[in-house]
Write a structure and sequence with these properties.
Elements (H helix, E strand, L loop, with lengths): L1 E7 L2 E5 L13 E7 L3 H11 L6 H5 L3 H4 E3 L3 E12 L2 E12 L2 E6 L4 H12 L7 H35 L6 H33 L8 H63 L14 H22 L4
Parallel strand pairs: 3-7
Antiparallel strand pairs: 1-2, 1-3, 4-5, 5-6, 6-7
Helix pairs in contact: 4-5, 5-6, 5-7, 6-7, 7-8
Length: 315
């Protein structure tokens, strides 16, 4: 599917037919959005721009040379858009191509931020002077969405902390939940750092119009704040993870301590019972109430052992 946003007078119209390129000039086109395009749509776009569009495989590569590059006429930038999916993060790569003032985006799945942007462009055409303003709006909106994701992770971290303070459901499943949130935090941080690298490269590029440097610097500052917030959240999760592991270890140690204490407590009485279980002559042998005396002796031994442990605060 292709969506061509072009200026016509004071309005911005949209066409969904690649054949309309023949009627449009580059000076009129702001944004070409390719959503799972057909071969004809992609080839027509490349012919209109005069350069190739990067493939999905290139957009998914992590090497810095694949994330940002430029040639004589175009700038190529690739980044991932994250969205919460159950307990994990869904990664959706998006490829940007900037040729002059024309922005081209290539993606495989619908994105809510792109849909809302398309409506905004047609509702407020005066805000979008060129493809660069569209690109900056996308990045600014994406940074805001990343901030929302970080805020959600921070709230989850606070809930985990409350559960630990209240000693509620502290078990292995809870530890796995913390670990999953840590994984999500790492994904978010990597994604934000990727955008930081992208904006930095744009600032260094000689093809970036100077009038957009101020906006790019603001985006860079916002991204830096998000990285700091993400680092703090990750460190807090590490602390919670260590706390949960410590609580689980203490519970296990207490269980082992109880079993060990019971074993030591009954050991003297077991020794007495073992002596009188032997088939040999022993004191009290033959007395009618010998079993009562032996039970009393074992009870005294058990109580004495308990009192000694209790006094030495070993319980």
């Amino acid at each position: 599917m292709i969506s061509i946003f072009y200026r016509q007078g004071a309005d911005i119209n949209v066409s969904q037919h690649e054949t309309d390129f023949a009627k449009l000039g580059k000076e009129n086109v702001l944004w070409i959005d390719l959503l799972s395009p057909t071969g004809d749509e992609k080839r027509a776009t490349e012919a209109f721009l005069g350069t190739e569009i990067q493939s999905r495989a290139t957009a998914e590569e992590i090497e810095s040379s694949s994330r940002f590059s430029e040639n004589d006429i175009a700038i190529f930038a690739n980044t991932n858009f994250l969205s919460p999916a159950d307990d994990e993060m869904a990664i959706d790569p998006v490829s940007f191509t900037l040729v002059g003032d024309v922005l081209t985006t290539l993606r495989e799945i619908p994105l809510r931020s792109f849909t809302s942007l398309q409506r905004r462009i047609q509702a407020r055409p005066a805000q979008f002077k060129s493809g660069w303003t569209v690109f900056l709006f996308i990045m600014d909106q994406r940074v805001d969405l990343d901030a929302d994701i970080i805020e959600l992770m921070s709230k989850e971290t606070s809930q985990f902390s409350k559960r630990i303070n209240q000693k509620e459901d502290i078990n292995e499943d809870f530890l796995l939940d913390i670990n999953q949130l840590q994984e999500n935090a790492m994904f978010v941080r990597e994604n934000i750092v990727d955008k930081q690298r992208l904006i930095t490269n744009l600032l260094k590029s000689g093809r970036t119009p100077d009038i957009y440097d101020a906006k790019l610097n603001v985006l860079l500052q916002d991204i830096g704040s998000l990285i700091n917030h993400t680092n703090f959240t990750f460190e807090r999760l590490e602390y919670l993870q260590d706390t949960v592991v410590g609580i689980i270890n203490l519970d296990q140690n207490n269980i082992m301590k109880i079993f060990t204490f019971i074993s030591l407590l009954l050991m003297p009485a077991t020794l007495v019972a073992s002596f009188y279980g032997m088939n040999v002559k022993l004191p009290l042998d033959g007395l009618r109430w010998a079993w009562v005396i032996l039970l009393a002796a074992m009870a005294v031994i058990v109580f004495t052992a308990w009192w000694i442990f209790h006094r030495k605060k070993m319980l």
